[in-house]
Fold this sequence. Notes:
Blueprint: E1 5-8, H1 12-23, E2 28-31, H2 36-41, E3 47-48, H3 50-58, H4 63-68, E4 70-72, E5 74-79, E6 82-87, H5 88-91, E7 97-99, H6 102-115, E8 119-121, E9 125-130, E10 138-143, E11 146-151, E12 154-157, H7 165-168, E13 176-191, E14 199-203, E15 209-215, E16 218-225, H8 236-247, E17 259-273, E18 277-278, E19 281-283, E20 289-290, H9 298-319, H10 323-350, H11 358-373, H12 375-386
Parallel strand pairs: 1-2, 1-12, 2-8, 5-14, 12-19
Antiparallel strand pairs: 3-7, 4-7, 5-6, 9-10, 10-11, 13-16, 13-17, 14-15, 15-16, 17-20, 18-19
Bound molecules: 8-demethyl-8-dimethylamino-flavin-adenine-dinucleotide and P-hydroxybenzoic acid.
Amino acid sequence: MKTQVAIIGAGPAGLLLAQLLRQNAIDCVILEARSEEYVLSRIRAGVLEHPTVELLHSIGAGDRLGREGLPHEGVDIVFRGEKRRIDFPSLTDGKKVTVYGQQEVVKDLIALKKDFDGQILFEAENVQLHDIESDSPSVSFTRHGEDVVLTCDFIAGCDGFHGVSRQTIPQDRLKLFEKVYPFAWLGLLAEAAPAQDELIYSYHQNGFALFSMRSPEVTRLYLQCHPEENLDEWPDERVWSELHTRLESGDGFRLNEGKILRKDVTPMRSFVCETMRHGRLFLAGDSAHIVPPTGAKGLNLAAGDVKVLNDALVAFFKSGSTDLLDAYEATALKRVWAAERFSWFMTRLLHKFPDGEPFDEAIQIADLDYFTSSEAGRKTIAENYVGLPFG
Ligand code: RFL
Ligand code: PHB
């Protein structure tokens, strides 16, 4: 098999890149380890930044998003029993975000790729990258018992944090940064109508909580918990009791309860692999960086990376110029570090640190007060939340 760009991973990064390349008549093949059903059932992100929504529309993946996505013009931040709203349009020249499940984005992109006879090879096992330092790299894999070699001009490593692409880069060439937080999120999906239209981020003495949604019938909720949390210790009654305690701020807001459809634990980590390019391998999305979900940035960062990568590949295939490919790492990292900073800031602002000293907690309250009352503070949150422009 032969293609111009071999893409490893059919998550948002890989699928978006494939669609961008197709628009520019560049051939690509996606190799995905999991089955289509598995990829479609992964419940993750929910908030799409303004630039991500624009990108999805520009590649023809915006129809259902436009109909079913929930535009959000603000979020509430709750602390010490007070609820304060950050209004996006008035602080960002009219921008907003859209709540639309990541699995819906993935579904729309897979449908689009099939419409154009694009190749997504699901269940590609034992994917290995070869000769990435040469001008003719290749990818080998096994599929349905058959060994296959795919030769290509470039490889896009879009295979997430645990993927094989980053691991193919020689250890001594990797420049890594990592921060692990002393807590995790217990995520819940409930068959209950969202009790208000906008998200609520809450700082509480019992720990952080987040109220979000997926549709007019489904509420998405998160509770700060221990990194090694045992789900058996969170029966539904305890979950609802903690959610009521942490989210109801005394302004009359009352959470609607419903059947809990899913419970999961997400560890919290900041991670950057600054080596986003090695030879003909380019990393994009979670394979190169992880943010704690408090800033709702992961999927949006993946979108930013692949937009920059696509522009660089297009320039190469149209004119032979390697300038943008050479600039990929620096261009992408600028936005990556901005999102890392914001995600770290939101995480530090809103969580209860298990070993927090009284002085640090008092500063945290002062920060919460400042960033939700001063216009400069609210603007800082709003402009980062709706999304900085793609590089
Ligand atoms: P993905 O989605 O992990 O996709 C990688 C794909 O590669 C495949 N793969 C392989 N394929 C072939 N060979 C191998 N050896 C392979 N190894 C892996 C995998 O099966 C998979 O299909 O990475 P990608 O595309 O970079 O996308 C990143 C996003 O998924 C991620 O950043 C977000 O989900 C993060 N995130 C959020 N991001 C937001 O922008 N807004 C949010 O509101 C938001 N909320 C969240 C989140 C992530 C969460 N969790 C569960 C980590 C909330 C949560 C709880
Ligand atoms: C979600 O709806 O899943 C969600 C929303 C906001 C976040 C993280 C996750 O910061």
